[in-house]
Amino acid sequence: MDGERFDTVVIGSGQAGLSAGYYMKRAGRRFLIVDANEHVGGSWLNRYDSLRLFTPPWAVRLPGWSYPAKGGPCPTKDEMIEYLQAYASRFDLPVRTSVHVDRISRDGDRYVLSAGLERIEADNVIVASGADRDPRIPAFSRELDPEIVQFHSSEYRNPSQLREGGVLVVGAGNSGADISLEVAPSHPTWLSGPHRGHVPPDIDRWFAQHVAFRVIRFFGLHVLTIRTPIGRKAAVKYASQGDMLVRVKPKQILAAGIERVPRTVGVRDGRPVLEDGRVLDVANVIWCTGFRHDFAWIDLPIFGEDGELLHHRGVVTSEPGLYFVGLMFQYSAGSSVIPGVGRDAKYVVERLVERDRIGAPPEARVAA
């Protein structure tokens, strides 16, 4: 791979990267999609086995091709991975797996992507891997007794990984709620963290899938955007507070015998300590504490004084030829999820093509 040069390299083979690839293919560009995983599927490959989408089957659609099933329950993680892999094959998208890009830099008028000892050059780069590459686990986790089994939610797959005994699930968002319900039948379980609210309808029922979801989708795609005051306010609130529960309801947590407890704030004598001073004697800790926004691997001056990425709808004007797809609130509340990612990918590729038509080197405009 050393010395290869492409018009565009897309980083990530999840829904964002494949959507960008679809529009690149339509535009007749010479491009490559790379992914650190061994298979197409993006971050879906690294989630717990029982994960199920919040999106009903009829609304699972990437540009050019809808999810084959129209009815029934929301797709599982494995079904979503199968759809993404079939999508890449259907449109013959050039995906190269097991390529972990650890640095993006400039060399004259080209971008250089470093993946270990490998080097790829590109006139344009679309980062579609998201900012959440680094699991967030509090530093005090290192003080836990070595006998306690602990891992981040990105490493958790199913209850067979756990020791016999109690389980503390730290983080009461959607992943934490899902996992706590899964482990509760076989382990005493505590769910740590504040309740951020929940979506009242049962999203697996007909009314929620065919009526409520349509309303929520319209609101998330067309009202909560960076162009509206309410959208800009929502973006700030989401960044600081996280999301509410969607599938799991508080009554389900209560019925499962899960004990809701305050935040986990430290360790005492090798055991986790809660905000109210209680020490829990557990055999397992699962950190459902999200991810750090990590763009440190991008060695380019594209960040503000606060460390935030400077872009407009995924276009980095300070570094012509650099684009992003799949960011949280890139344009709307739906930008990082299936209903909204295609629109953002289309916008970014259109800007890329316009730029190259005006001023890129001639060889970059030649189709494969």
Written overview of the protein:
This protein has about 375 residues and is of the alpha/beta class. It folds into two domains: about 5-135 and about 295-365, FAD/NAD(P)-binding domain; about 135-200 and about 245-285, FAD/NAD(P)-binding domain (3-Layer(bba) Sandwich). The protein is about 25% helix and about 20% strand. The protein contains seven helices and 18 strands. It has helices at about 15-25, 75-90, 175-185, 205-225, 230-240, 250-255, 340-360; strands at about 5-10, 30-35, 60, 65, 95, 105, 110-115, 120-125, 130-135, 150, 165-170, 190, 260, 265-270, 270-275, 285, 290-295, 320-325. The strands form five sheets. Strands 1, 2, 5, 6, 7, 8 and 18 form a seven-stranded mixed beta sheet that branches. The chain has a five-stranded parallel beta sheet with strand order 10-16-11-12-13, covered by helices on one side. The longest helix is centred in the last third of the chain and has 22 residues, at about 340-360. The chain is globular, with a radius of gyration of 22 Å. Mean pLDDT is about 90; it is low at about 360-368.
